[in-house]
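Incident review: delayed structure delivery

Summary: a single-chain prediction request sat in the queue longer than the usual turnaround. Root cause was a stuck worker, restarted by the on-call engineer. No data loss occurred. The affected request and its eventual output are reproduced below so the record is complete for anyone auditing the incident later.

Affected input:
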Amino acid sequence: MMEPVHLSAFDGASEWLNTAPLDRPELRGRATLVDFWTLTCINWLRAQPYVRAWARAYRDDGLVVVGVHTPEFTFERDSHRVRQAVAAREIDYPVAVDNDYAVWRAFDNHYWPALYFLDADGVVRDQHFGEGRYERSEQVLQRLLGVERALVSTHVEGHGVEAEADWTHLRSPETYLGYARGENFASPGGIAFDEPRAYERPEDLRLNHWALAGEWTAERESVVLAGAEGSLACRFHARDAHLVLSPGERGPMAFRVLVDGRPPGRSHGVDVDENGAGVLDEGRLYQLVREPDDVRERTVEITFAEPGAEAYAFTFG
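Output delivered after worker restart:
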């Protein structure tokens, strides 16, 4: 895209956070970084410390950063959840809530995260999809702003779910659980669409396969616990294991995580304790495992003691 982006592209936002609706005079004549994101995306979470750092480092130089939250899953359309994510990630620049994909379509975007670098005339001078390339991206910003100084990217360090992945040992891909995009399901008998069914976990799980135990309903985007108790398990090879979860219409519910059949101990993620105890209280990405020692093939299992939990996707790092 090397022609001006008409500033009316942002008119399709259903809501604005951290600002009144941005009018065209506020963007005209300014270098702008547009960041497409969705609150459960692990790739966006790991890139966010850099965007946050650029927004603060170059604000006085005239940079305008605009976050565009375009939901991947239906529950992410709830602007209250978007507000929670904005607060949790300490985002202080304008965010357009793009529930109808209007801004997404105006940019002909297809990815989370996606960065578009606009000059003062609204021309996209560069773009980048996914993680990485941080120093080059910052150099693009400096050229657009007409400044030259030490890069802040070299000093950025993510923590918790924002920490960079252990790419050397990462051998497990993102794994969707809803039947629209789900694969590598290992419970005997396969999966039933849109109706409750009792599942069993096989004795052995192959790497990057997952299984259910108990009564679950498989829906397009997620699997939903229909019975009084149930669990899901995944065999993975990575330092980190995350799971996108939502309590649906129910209130907070406890869950427990086991790693290779035992409490995780020092391998617990930020959302569980050493005994594997955690609470599902909002729709977001939960970090279940962070391995502090040798990364190896392991099985993570999460169990709920009451119905209603919705599970969307495993992601790894």
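Verification: The two ends are 31 Å apart (CA to CA).
Action items: add queue-age alerting; document worker restart procedure.
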